[in-house]
Design goal:
The chain is of the alpha/beta class and 204 residues long. Helix content is 31%, strand content 33%. Pfam families: ABC_trans_aux.
Amino acid sequence: MMMQKNYLLVFALILIQTGCSIGGTSQPAEFYVLNAEPGTPVSSRVSATTPLSVGLGPVTMPDIFDRPQIVTRPQPNRIDLAEFDRWAGNLNSDLSRVLAQNLMHRLNTDSVLLPPWSNRNNLDFQVAVQVFRFDGEVGNIARLEGIWRLLDGEKGCELAVNHFNFNESTAGSGYPKFVSAMSHAVAKLSREIAETIGQTQPGC
């Protein structure tokens, strides 16, 4: 009986070691961020003697994207979650950061501010962005769709509104190319917003 127990103990230890070995060879996760793509500054109708100040926010997106895994949509009613390809931070915050960086370069200003704002009276414009989808298919296309609104910075009245839908080719397979295409789509959105701001005077 004692020898049988010893055999069982040895067998259990072998199973534990085998399990640890298998678990130790699991695929490591890769982490990604969106990249800013500044582009060429646009002309502005706002007086050059006054630094342009823009409040960027709120920037919102569906809860489906509020997760660490990169979300893709291989079919209209199906999504895939990439367990080993993840965002390094929060996608919504990353999108806000990149939009702000792009707009700073496009508008040639250091004052693109994320909320909260201490004083709206110091803002020339406010930009609100509502994202409907930010996904796509790896090895095919990245999609960014939603609505942005341009508001007067001080009074909050709506100056412009536009529905955007950018489809950017991934130009290759794999998640690095896919995330790069997502950054290209954000750059196109930034340019569209900046060009509208450049042709708009603040005030209601």
